[in-house]
Amino acid sequence: MSDPRISHIELDDATILWRNADIEQERRIAIFDLIEDNVFKPVRAFESGHEGPYRLKLSVRDGRLSLDLGDEEGQALETMVLGLARFRRPVREYFAVCESYYQAIRKASAQEIETIDMARRGIHDAAAELLLERLDGKVETDHPTARRLFTLICVLHIRG
User: Fold this and answer.
1) Which residues share a beta bridge with 70?
2) 3-state DSSP assignment of residue 73
3) How many Å apart are CA 95 and CA 154, to the nearest integer?
4) Residues sharing a CB contact under 8 Å with residue 86, sequence separation 6 or more, in sequence order
């Protein structure tokens, strides 16, 4: 029976050099939400008879995002590689607005927090659309899944 979704996701800890409590919380929430509800259908693997669910490991190697895909038992299916050049600006903008958001939730007014959160969501949505573009023809997925994957891509870019 076809089950095109991610059942397990892992981030390459060697890629992540540093993260604070706020970022760790973002990572935990993104992974939890992603596992709970996602659409992820890798075209080549699916057409080869691997209809899910899938295990996914994300890492950054040589400036590229590596998506190592396996079946439910962990058997390697394929590795997809995406250039990250087009994500540099959205990642940088997302970090900047998140830092403002984390500071605001500690001392700003509700209106200021809402304004910053709207900016954060806007950057997040635009980056998810970019990820959907980059995955086109490789993976069929939806916007909420792409948003959560973008959050995890950001976590992989933390340098301290």
Assistant:
1) 55, 76
2) coil
3) 8
4) 130, 134
